[in-house]
Amino acid sequence: MMFGKTTKFLVAATVIAGLTTAALAKEKVYKWKLATTWGPTLSPFIDAPKNMAKMVEEMSNGRLLIRVDASNKHKAAFGILDMVKGGQYDMGHSASYYWKGKDINTLPFTTMPFGMTAPEQYAWFYYGGGLDLMQKVYKKHKVLSFPGGNTGNQMGGWFRKEIKSLDDLKGLKMRIPGFAGEIMNKLGMTVTNIPSGELYTSLERGTIDALEWVGPGMDIKMGFHKVAPYYYTGWHEPGTELQFLVNQRKFNKLPDDLKAILVTAIRVSAYDMYAQNYAMSANAWAKMGKDYPNIKVKTFPKEVMDAMKRTNKELLVEKTKGQPLLKEILDSQSAFQKKAREWTKMSDYLYLKDNLE
Ligand code: CA
Q1: pLDDT over threshold 60, residue 10
Q2: pTM of the entire structure?
Q3: Residue 193 and residue 191: Cα distance in Å, rounded?
Q4: Distance 214 CA to ligand 1 centre (A)
Q5: Could you report the per-residue pLDDT of 111-122, keeping only the tens digit for each?
Q6: pLDDT band at residue 6, thresholds of 50, 70 and 90?
């Protein structure tokens, strides 16, 4: 009897092993390419897609391989949406507000001046209807879009000269993207967007007089402080979220388990970039006063801040005229912000205001 049982077990094991080998032999390996806006060493932005690709490879046991191309490879830092839409790339990693000129509805998904902080905005994306609205906008481009990593509150930028009044802004040329750029333009500045690799030389050569980039973790390494020592606190990008893009047709062709692995890796790597950038900025800030005594940290004068707030409100009214979807997104954001901010006040704000050390 014992022998009989063992034989049956062995036969069964052989059949299962045979099936597994056959199944493995048929398993398709998907080889994808991802294009980023960022240069090959631009941490932590470039780390988010790289970490995502590594997680996907490990979790799928090598069945989905994603090659990450930095901007020096494809030479189209601001062409990510077009390349993913057109299928030259299966995926992208960039910032939604770079395409506001092509589709105004993509603007609010990165950050909005005086808008939500990173935790508030993540809550909106995943539990407040934000992700559905983002998919609705990108459906037109046959692309899926996901939160791709947050910088937290950004610094207001580097200026050669101190800004003492509203008049001091007039005539200055500044690199500042998104809706904040439009506000600065209304306040008399000439605004432009420049890829990360050209920022320092543009500032050094005087092509621009000021720029905003991210925060101390990323900014100090760029050397902006050497030519523009006035470093202003932020107002314009309180919770900048990058985006992962996926070509919809390519995504549909993936088996269900690979779809789940991809979406999970995207979400984990996005949160991870938020943590990584927070640590980078905390470390850089701790060193700043000691190692870079020429940096002068400033807050914009009340007159300037009031003008920015007023112009923000006026421009939002102007911008949403005849744009029902943009209005729907911005209304959803402001309603969520109003509610979430009450909780932020009761929790983080009240705690922090008495515990600043
Ligand atoms: Ca920025």
Answers
A1: no
A2: 0.91
A3: 7
A4: 5
A5: 999 999 999 999
A6: very low
What token pair was written down for 352? 């922090």
Phi, psi of 197 (to 5 degrees): -65, -20
What is the 157 CA–ligand 1 centroid distance (Å)? Answer: 8
When pLDDT is cut at 50, 70 and 90, the band that residue 2 belongs to is very low
The three-class DSSP label of residue 247 is strand
Centre of ligand 1 from the C-alpha of residue 179, in Å: 11
d(CA 276, CA 323): 37
**Coil/strand/helix, residue 1:** coil
The DSSP-derived string for 299-356 is ---HHHHHHHHHHHHHHHHHHHTT-HHHHHHHHHHHHHHHHHHHHHIIIIIHHHHT--
Distance 259 CA to ligand 1 centre (A): 31
Yes or no: say if 308 and 179 are a contact pair by the CB < 8 Å rule. Answer: no
Q: Are 98 and 111 in contact (CB under 8 A)?
A: no
At 92, the amino acid letter reads G
CA 148 to centroid of ligand 1, rounded, Å? 15
Q: Cα(105)–Cα(84) distance, rounded to whole angstroms?
A: 18
Return d(Cα 272, Cα 275) in angstroms, integer.
5
Say which CATH topology domain 7-151+238-278 has: D-Maltodextrin-Binding Protein; domain 2 (3.40.190)
How many angstroms is it from 297 CA to the middle of ligand 1?
17
Taking the centre of ligand 1 as the mean of its atom positions, its distance from the CA of residue 175, in whole angstroms, is 9
CA of 216 to the centre of ligand 1 (A): 12
pLDDT for residue 288:
87
In this predicted structure, what is the pLDDT of residue 12? 52
> 212 CA distance to ligand 1 centroid (A)?
5
**Residue 222 CA to ligand 1 centre (angstroms):** 13
The amino acid present at 288, given as its one-letter code, is M
**Could you give the percent of the chain with pLDDT greater than 90?**
90
Q: What are the residues whose beta carbons fall under 8 Å from the beta carbon of 122, sequence distance 6 or more?
A: 147, 150, 241, 271
Q: pLDDT tens-digit profile of 311-342?
A: 999 999 999 999 999 999 999 999 999 999 99
- The pLDDT of residue 27: 87
Q: What is the pLDDT of residue 228?
A: 97
d(CA 187, CA 202): 22
